[in-house]
Design brief:
It is built from twelve helices and six strands. The chain is of the alpha/beta class. Among the domains are: about 45 residues, no CATH class; about 190 residues, Uracil-DNA glycosylase-like domain (Uracil-DNA Glycosylase, subunit E, 3-Layer(aba) Sandwich). Strand 5 and strand 6 form a beta hairpin. Helix 2 packs parallel to helix 3. It binds uracil.
């Protein structure tokens, strides 16, 4: 698959993913090297192994190895311990300068929720999973009836404060389904998921995979109404909203689902596992393979994790390719 240079550039990955990768891949005759999990290091090392590197590429090998071991050390050290909840709407968040590789990341996705205004009490380890909501007749609705039902939904208290429901957007026959958490302020106003800064980054992530939100991608949220004040949705709100998402998945019949962020991943997978423990594996939701990655709003603030998000998308792409092959 052709990588989109501009999208990668905007993702902050171009210098590492395209310029070096393409030059070396062309040399080695390997088009898809950028799909590897630690591409910079592996591509550079592969080229070194073939003894085709020029002096500048040897530097790249050294740099890549150093970066890789630094990154590994940073993540083995674990998240920063003094993390304050981020008070302002992340949708409005501006990208912050890259953090020096000597500094630990200021927070991790596991410290982060889209609904970050209110700290959530930790669930006791033996807390029962919230019950799945009864499906009622939602499981039998067609697209029009389903979107009408969502628009008029009063199944939980979130209906009281919403401006618009946010149903979903994109290709209703897409192979790819991206699932976020819940609408923020702009989404509530516009009735569309992932508008604003996080949405722009999401569009760039898609473009890097030669995808766009209207073609072969459908985007929805676990929760269809904005929780007031961007608080975390309650388990009963998730349970009451889930039949809508289940029906959307059944209608779209995606070949791959990408769960965006901890909240979406935990809600879909019925787990309280950390994002770190959920990434890098193929899960299942309603019989569809699921890949977990960081929320784009988190990535806006945590640039050092963009390469990990790209690795997640590459895993999603490989999984999608596998699923598409089986279905052929
Ligand atoms: N964050 C989400 O998870 N979903 C949106 O639609 C917007 C922001």
């Amino acid at each position: 698959m052709a990588l989109d240079d501009i999208a990668l550039e905007e993702l902050g990955l171009a210098p590492r993913w395209v310029r070096k990768g393409v030059a070396i891949a062309a040399h080695a005759g390997a088009q898809d090297v950028a799909a590897d999990v630690e591409p910079t290091a592996r591509v550079a090392e592969a080229a070194a192994a073939q003894r085709t590197v020029e002096p500048a590429q040897e530097d790249a090998v050294r740099e890549a190895r150093a970066a890789r071991s630094q990154q590994a050390a940073r993540f083995e050290a674990g998240p920063a311990s003094t993390v304050e909840p981020q008070p302002e709407s992340l949708q409005e968040a501006k990208a912050t300068p890259a953090i020096s590789s000597d500094e630990p990341p200021p927070f991790t996705e596991d410290d982060f929720a889209w609904f970050d205004a209110v700290a959530e009490p930790a669930l006791p380890a033996d807390a029962p999973a919230p019950p799945r909501a009864p499906r009622d007749d939602i499981a039998a609705l067609d697209w029009d009836a389903l979107s009408e039902r969502v628009a008029g939904c009063t199944r939980c208290r979130l209906c009281e404060k919403r401006t618009n429901t946010v149903f979903g957007v994109g290709d209703r026959e897409a192979d790819w389904m991206l699932i976020g958490e819940a609408p923020g302020e702009n989404e509530d106003r516009q009735g569309e998921p992932f508008v604003g800064q996080a949405g722009k980054l999401l569009d760039n992530m898609l473009r890097a995979l030669s995808l766009e939100r209207s073609q072969n991608v459908y985007i929805a949220n676990v929760i269809k109404c904005r929780p007031p004040g961007n608080r975390n949705p309650e388990p009963d709100e998730v349970a009451r909203c889930e039949p809508y998402l289940q029906r959307q998945v059944a209608l779209v019949k995606p070949k791959i689902i990408v769960a965006l962020g901890r909240f979406a991943a935990q809600s879909l997978l019925k787990t309280d596992g950390s994002i770190a423990s959920l990434r890098g594996r193929v899960h299942q939701y309603e019989g569809v393979p699921v890949i977990v990655t960081y929320h784009p709003a988190y990535l806006l603030r945590s640039l050092q994790d963009k390469s990990k998000a790209w690795a997640d998308l590459c895993l999603a792409r490989d999984t999608w390719r596998g699923a598409a092959r089986v279905d052929r």
